[in-house]
Amino acid sequence: MKHPAPLLEVSALRVAFDGKEVVRGIDFSIQPGEKLALVGESGSGKTVTALSLLRLVMNAQISGAAGFLGRDLLALPESELRAVRGSEIAMIFQEPMTALNPLFTVGEQIAEVLELKQGHSRADASRIAVDLLAETGITEPQRRAQAFPHQLSGGQRQRAMIAMALACKPQLLLADEPTTALDVTLRAQILDLLTALQRQNGMAVLLITHDLNLVRRFADRVAVMENGLIVEQGSVAQVFADPRHAYTRRLIDSQPVRDVPSRRHDAAVFDPVMQAKALRVSYPVPVAGVRGWFRKGEFVAVQGADFAIHPGQTLGVIGESGSGKSTLALAALGLLPFQGALQVGGGAWHKGAEADKVLRQAVQVVFQDPFSSLSPRMTIEEIVGEGLRVHAPTLSTAQRQARVLTALDEVGLTQAQFPALLTRYPHEFSGGQRQRIAIARALVVGPRLLVLDEPTSALDVTIQKQVLQLLQGLQHELGLSYLLITHDVDVIRAMAHDVIVMKDGVVVESGSVEQVLAAPRHEYTRVLVAAAV
């Protein structure tokens, strides 16, 4: 049986920067209407591969061949390649907020593609832009077309990017991590949308991702990249059922594994590390019209939340963006005014500077993005030891340095492994290592509770598993309690003893993690759990 000619056939593709190869002679092909996933961790070369096909990588030395409908994309004159971009091959970028122009409405940006690529008049292009937004499922497309990117939610911005990419009905779509910045339910919606549009238009898709659940749900075939090489490729069913390469096996085995201390049967004997009753957080907002001269309105971000965190246990807080998770975390850290009761051990926030100082030692935080949460101007010794200057000011320089080294050793960073560790700066470490430094900074003052705000969402899957295993080990060894904020059901399943589910500032469901995830009662919880499968 004769197979149809590939829509895209890439041969011996090499990409280098200043002589250093980051893509090292890879081969792959995509058939018409096929969905191929290019999978790998950060730095594997997958995004550079996709961008190189359209020669969108600046200062890169590119060689090899990329046959597309009888033409070699890598050899086309710039004028001919410009005609291919957007009309025959389109691209969806990872972060729509940076990919969309903040100075133009989304309707104007979609219409511009139609005017330049298909020669439509401005009026026709504007009308078609609204129709395209409607096809992507955006509500009130006429009104959304008049909105600027910052006025749309993350899911709406991504739908606008998809509408722009599909404006000229391309034959090949390059989708670079199209759901990474989205909540779990929005990811499922965008995947379903791409699948429907792909079938409707008969286009092929090259999906760039490190999310294996995404690959299982979406792709026909998968190619696995490591260090600039494709180490394995085949059908999704074949590769996931019988991975041949060690790196592929490591990626597939990177799902979080549950390993937490057993629930204490005598927990009722001990006071909770943190307890909230009827916790309410609101923000003032302006009131339109004349009434706004005399009073302010309010936006209630958290409404009547009750929870308790027991010694050595983890409370998971799950929900989509805007559900109130991070506001709850900020209130727990004493960084926002609130109403209701919030007890930390035997104390409460906002009782004065000295009283709050004691609580701040007991409650520390690990943020989502370790790169932005660590000062690039401070050494590792200064970063990790900063809390000791506040909470243990009588320590000598040698004692403080010893405490810093102990904290770093607890998170798996030693001077034997990293010479001159204390004098290094954050940029000299990988993402996972930076998150370990952030955890060491929290541990060094001896807290009882860590607030973990999406601690692994910015990390690759294998690094995510390592960080979760580290946190699990620390809980076993030190008896720490965690308040874990996340939108990832798999992380909750691996880490939490109890869970609360938040939607629009309200706790819609709570209970043990086994009870809530295995038999969710609320429809919203059922949607979250189903979207994570």
Briefly summarize what is shown:
The protein is α/β, with parallel strands linked by helices and 533 residues long.
How is the secondary structure organized here?
Layout (H helix, E strand, L loop, with lengths): L7 E10 L2 E11 L4 E5 L6 H8 L7 E8 L2 E2 L5 H7 L4 E4 L3 H4 L6 H13 L3 H14 L5 H5 L8 H12 L6 E5 L7 H18 L2 E6 L2 H7 L2 E6 L2 E7 H6 L4 H7 L21 E12 L11 E13 L4 E5 L6 H8 L6 E6 L2 E2 L4 H10 E4 L3 H4 L6 H12 L5 H14 L20 H13 L5 E5 L7 H18 L2 E6 L2 H7 L2 E6 L2 E7 H6 L4 H9 L2
Parallel strand pairs: 3-8, 3-9, 6-7, 7-8, 13-18, 13-19, 16-17, 17-18
Antiparallel strand pairs: 1-2, 1-4, 4-5, 9-10, 11-12, 11-14, 14-15, 19-20
Helix pairs in contact: 4-5, 4-7, 5-7, 7-8, 15-16, 15-17, 16-17, 17-18
Summary tags:
single chain, 533 residues, alpha/beta, Rossmann fold, six-stranded mixed β-sheet, 38% helix
Poorly predicted regions: none
**Helical fraction:** 25-40%
CATH topology of the largest domain: Rossmann fold
What count of helical segments does DSSP give? 21
Alpha-carbon distance between the termini?
Answer: 36 Å
CATH H level of the largest domain: which superfamily? P-loop containing nucleotide triphosphate hydrolases
Strand order of the largest sheet: 6-7-8-3-9-10
Helix-strand category: alpha/beta
Largest sheet, if any?
6 strands, mixed
Can you tell me the CATH class of the largest domain? Alpha Beta
What is the radius of gyration?
26 Å
Structurally, the number of domains stands at 3
Give the DSSP E fraction (strand runs of 2 or more residues).
Answer: 15-25%
Provide mean pLDDT, rounded.
89
* CATH architecture descriptor text of the largest domain: 3-Layer(aba) Sandwich
Shape estimate: globular
Q: Would you report the number of β strands?
A: 20
